[in-house]
Amino acid sequence: MIGNIATIGYGLAALGPGIGVGIIGAKNQEATARQPELRGYLRINMFLSIAFTEALGLIGFVAGFVFGA
């Protein structure tokens, strides 16, 4: 029973990075609209932020297999 609850918890933890990537993309679009001359700098920061956010999602995914078994 504990393994099933933990697996559901780790699955729910994947929602956080999904929402985070959406917010990052929206804010990058907003910032680019406000200052188009900074487009390249903003894009680099967006990709770095997405990479760190997705890394948290992958850690949660792997933890579900490691601790859920």
Outline the secondary-structure elements.
Elements: H1 2-13, H2 15-34, H3 39-68
Helix pairs in contact: 1-3, 2-3
Tell me the span between the first and last alpha carbons: 11 Å
Q: What ranges have pLDDT less than 50 throughout 5 or more consecutive residues? A: none
Mean pLDDT: 85
Helix-strand category: mainly alpha
Largest sheet data: none
Spatial extent as radius of gyration:
16 Å
Strand count: 0
Choose one word for the global shape.
Answer: elongated
- Percent in strands: under 5%
Q: Helical stretch count? A: 3
Q: List SSEs in N-to-C order.
A: HHH
Task: Summarize the amount of helix as a percent range.
Answer: over 70%
Brief descriptors of the model:
3 helices, mainly alpha
Give a written overview of the molecule.
With 69 residues, the protein is an all-alpha fold. Helix content is 90%, strand content 0%. The protein has three helices and no strands. It has helices spanning 2-13, 15-34, 39-68. Helix 1 (2-13) runs antiparallel to helix 3 (39-68) and helix 2 packs antiparallel against helix 3. The protein is elongated and about 50 Å long. The model has no long low-confidence stretch (mean pLDDT 85).
